[in-house]
Specification:
By secondary structure, this protein is mainly alpha-helical. It has 18 helices and no strands.
């Protein structure tokens, strides 16, 4: 075991905070620029806001693919570093980076051929359709920057370095925020590009973060050595990475599928309901992204100590993570409960949206506190290589229960019947996650 690695000896709670605070901050900024993007687009009218909301599931899909592969890279690198095998850790980093690039090509195909058919499923409004196509074509076709950036970010995190990934995230997000008003409304003699400007700002931010990540890796990542000299595809390595990447990506894809299906349900009721739900899904990232920052800090610690066979440190990591995640999600519930009108006012909410959104935000926010065990256990399952269990929890949280229950409750309780399905699904998923963890805990083979 590498006794110089702080993941093996530093007190757990300070270590978790050290590991988690940088990704928490970077993810908060990421969430902020997603919301700021919508705030600026909202100035163009509800049609533009609805259009961006329709494309959001596809954006989340690309993020899910890139993060799923990144999480797999992270888990294997941290595990092999814990076993003091830097050569194998570097090998998986190389294979994982190639996997990320190849998967980014899938979204070039989506951007070229599938954007228009996708949009037509949810709207017949010509203005909304055109806005959505302009935005979606750009953000889908040029996702390679995000894929490469996230892969290198996870490599740094697996070595215990959370500060550099934070810098990369912040730079990309700040560039996006700065360029948004310039390109959307046209400043400094640049023509106003509307929703296309918002998309271009997003892509530029991602590409700059990608270039910065490559530079940072070259100069500051000394434990992992990526080389494509004499590279060959290792299908077994790809298969091993997929065992974690597929459940992780599926977990992150589920919101995309969920939002698309619910948009189909909500579109039959009100375009305003679709716009509100798009706003909520970006707002909830302010709560869930910091919680996921804790999970990001927890994963390499759990994986490292699993590889190093330090069971007591794994237990301490679990409890420290539970307290931290619980605090964040409870605070989110309180804020959404008390200030729904104030929150919606940033999006130029009219009286109809306020009527839908005030009760909507309050009911939906109950899901935050109900999701604490599910979020924690999914992260633990991934860090230990139990991808199947993580996938089960994710399916329960964000797919299996919500859609059919929404169809059942909608006729009697209208839109509130849709919103209440979120806390119900989180409660059920949390209960099942606890049962699965107890079973896994008994079966973990820890060598003496």
């Amino acid at each position: 075991m590498d006794i110089k690695n702080p993941m093996g000896y530093k007190p757990v709670f300070p270590l978790l905070l050290t590991m988690a605070l940088p990704p928490m901050l970077s993810m908060l900024i990421q969430a902020m620029y997603n919301v700021v993007d919508s705030i600026f687009v909202a100035q163009l009218g509800e049609n533009a806001l609805t259009a961006v909301s329709l494309i959001y599931p596809l954006q989340n899909l690309s993020l899910a693919f890139s993060c799923g592969i990144g999480i797999a890279i992270n888990a294997f690198i941290a595990r092999y570093l814990g076993a003091d095998d830097k050569k194998q850790a570097s090998y998986y980093a190389t294979q994982g980076l190639m996997m990320s690039f190849l998967h980014s090509l899938i979204f070039v195909i989506i951007g070229l051929f599938f954007i228009k058919p996708f949009i037509s499923l949810f709207t017949s409004n010509t203005t909304v359709f055109n806005y959505a196509w302009q935005y979606g074509f750009i953000v889908m076709t040029f996702t390679f920057g995000s894929f490469i950036h996230i892969a290198i970010e996870k490599i740094f995190q697996a070595t215990g370095n959370m500060f550099i990934p934070m810098i990369m995230q912040i730079v990309g997000a700040v560039i996006n925020i700065i360029l948004d008003p310039i390109l959307i409304f046209g400043y400094f003699k640049i023509p106003a590009l509307g929703v296309s400007g918002a998309a271009i700002a997003t892509i530029i931010g991602q590409i700059v973060a990608c270039l910065l990540s490559i530079i940072m890796y070259k100069y500051y990542c000394h434990d992992i050595h990526i080389s494509f000299k004499n590279y060959h595809f290792d299908f077994q390595a790809f298969k091993n990475l997929y065992t974690i990447a597929v459940p992780s990506a599926t977990m992150m894809c589920l919101p995309s599928v969920l939002v698309s299906l619910l948009n189909g349900i909500l579109a039959s009721i009100s375009q305003t309901a679709v716009a509100f739900f798009g706003i909520y899904f970006k707002l909830q990232s302010f709560v869930y992204m910091p919680a996921n920052g804790i999970v990001q800090g927890m994963r390499p610690i759990m994986s490292y100590n699993y590889g190093a066979k330090q069971k007591e440190r794994m237990d301490k990591t679990l409890w420290a993570s539970l307290i931290s995640i619980g605090t964040i999600l409870c605070l989110g519930t309180v804020l959404f409960m008390i200030f729904p009108s104030l929150i919606l006012s940033f999006f130029k909410a009219n009286s109809q949206m306020l009527a839908i959104g005030n009760s909507g935000l309050q009911i939906l926010s109950l899901g935050f506190v109900c999701s604490i065990p599910g979020i924690l256990m999914s992260g633990i399952f991934e860090s230990l290589g139990y991808g199947k269990q993580s996938l089960i929890i994710s399916l329960l949280r964000q797919f299996i229960i919500i859609i059919p229950l929404s169809l059942i409750l909608l006729p009697s309780f209208h839109l509130n019947g849709v919103w209440i399905t979120f806390p119900i699904s989180e409660l059920i998923a949390s209960f099942i996650s606890y049962i699965l963890y107890k079973k896994i805990y008994k079966n973990i083979k820890m060598a003496d």
